[in-house]
Amino acid sequence: MENTQGAGRRRQNAIYRAGVLGRRPAVPTDFAELERRARKASSATGWAYVAGGAGEGRTMRANRAAFDQWAIVPRMLRDVAERDLSSELLGTPLVAPVLLAPVGAGQLIAKDADLRTAEAAAAVGVPYIFTNQGGTPMEETARAMGAAPRWVQLYWSTDEALVDSLIGRAEAVGAGALVVTLDTTVLGWRPQDLNLGSLPFAKGLGIGQYTSDPRFRELAASRPRSGKPEITLGAIRSLIEITRNHPGAFWSNLRSPLPRASVETFLDIYSNPRLNWDHIATLRDRTRLPIVLKGILHPDDARRAFDAGVDAIVVSNHGGRQVDNAIAALDALVAVRDAVGPDARVLMDSGIRTGADVFVALALGADAVLLGRPYMYGLAIAGRRGIEEVVANVIAELDLTMALTGVRNLSEITRELIVPRGTLKA
Question: Could you point out which of 40, 254, 355, 373 has its C-alpha 20 to 30 Å from the C-alpha of 72?
Answer without folding.
Answer: 373
